[in-house]
């Protein structure tokens, strides 16, 4: 396996916990949670694992500025801004949404970390403005490194390939098969595809025998299968010989994203409340709330067998609970 530049600032390994009260309430399979909301950087989250590789790559290229984009309350951008601050880099964020009079939650944290924020009302303009921002930074001699949306590049996906290796060394896995305690299913929210692709790659490389099922936050099943399989294939080249993944190998469910990105429905509201009330565990309203809502619905529909084990991979995002947009809706 190739040696890949990597920084080590995430708090790893993240713990795995049982959710017995939620399991009892739903009268379904055993539920575990992998706490990637505890990765440490700026309230943690899944992007921290990706940024260990992305910032290392930026450093090897001599970058002085990290540039990225996302929604106004982007968890990815919050962690990118924190990583830039930690390593003495400038940070420019192109965020779609109306800039509030009083920034809150992730947006407030972006500013605390010293990021320059460019707000654009129309999401359709984000790609163009992001590229223009990058090009201007090049012209100005700021030596920019473009961090892709969600950290979802072949380099960023490596964070979750190695997260799968981490999982396989933890209890209840530790060399066991699914029927002996290792999860039968891993459930998580998927959108830009980097976490999904990394887990699919790690599943193959490190021998996870269960199923990796992404609950879509905003993309179609067809797009996810195509995009994630290609991203996993491209990421595999960083490790050594290329592995060609087919779209049929990617499991995705897009039944729960019809309301649209960031639109809080009763399903997300119920999921956030159930995790809080029965396990003292906070989800966010956009990503983990939607993924958990999908998991809960699938349990109620009997998708999983009662003697199976589900691992819900908590990808963080709780600062969004304190955004003005959501605080009165949960």
Can you walk me through this structure?
This protein is of the alpha/beta class. The protein folds into 2 domains: 205 residues, Rossmann fold, CATH 3.40.50.1100; 105 residues, Rossmann fold. Helix content is 40%, strand content 16%. The protein has 11 helices and 10 strands. The strands form 2 sheets. The chain has a 6-stranded mixed beta sheet, with helices on both faces. A 4-stranded parallel beta sheet has the order 5-4-3-6, sandwiched between helices. The longest helix has 19 residues. The mean pLDDT is 95.
Give a quick precis of the structure:
The protein contains eleven helices and ten strands. With about 325 residues, the chain is an alpha/beta fold.
């Amino acid at each position: 396996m190739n040696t890949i530049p990597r920084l080590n600032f995430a708090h790893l390994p993240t713990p795995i916990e049982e959710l017995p009260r939620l399991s009892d309430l739903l009268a379904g399979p055993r539920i575990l949670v992998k706490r990637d909301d505890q990765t440490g950087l700026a309230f943690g989250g899944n992007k921290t694992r990706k940024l260990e590789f992305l910032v290392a790559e930026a450093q090897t290229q001599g970058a002085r500025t990290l540039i990225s984009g996302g929604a106004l309350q982007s968890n990815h951008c919050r962690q990118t801004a924190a990583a830039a601050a930690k390593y003495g880099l400038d940070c420019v964020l192109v965020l779609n949404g109306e800039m509030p009079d009083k920034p809150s939650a992730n947006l407030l944290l972006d500013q605390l970390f010293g990021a320059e924020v460019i707000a654009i009302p129309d999401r359709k303009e984000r790609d163009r403005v992001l590229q223009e921002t990058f090009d201007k930074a090049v012209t100005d001699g700021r030596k920019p490194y473009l961090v892709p949306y969600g950290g979802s590049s072949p380099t960023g996906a490596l964070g979750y390939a190695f997260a799968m290796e981490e999982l396989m060394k933890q209890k209840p896995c530790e060399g066991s098969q699914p029927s002996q305690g290792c999860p039968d299913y891993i459930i998580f929210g998927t959108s830009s595809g980097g976490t999904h692709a990394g887990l699919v790659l790690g599943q193959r490389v490190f021998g996870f025998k269960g199923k990796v099922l992404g609950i879509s936050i905003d993309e179609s099943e067809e797009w996810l299968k195509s995009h994630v399989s290609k991203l996993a294939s491209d990421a595999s080249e960083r490790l050594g010989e290329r592995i060609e993944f087919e779209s049929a190998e990617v499991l995705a469910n897009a039944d729960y994203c019809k309301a649209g990105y960031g639109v809080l429905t009763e399903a997300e509201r119920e999921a956030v409340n159930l995790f809080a009330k029965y396990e003292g565990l906070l989800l966010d309203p956009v990503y983990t709330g939607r993924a958990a809502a999908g998991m809960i619905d699938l349990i109620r529909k009997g998708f999983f067998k009662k003697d199976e084990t589900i691992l819900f991979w908590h990808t963080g995002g709780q600062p969004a609970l304190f955004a003005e947009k959501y605080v009165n809706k949960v």
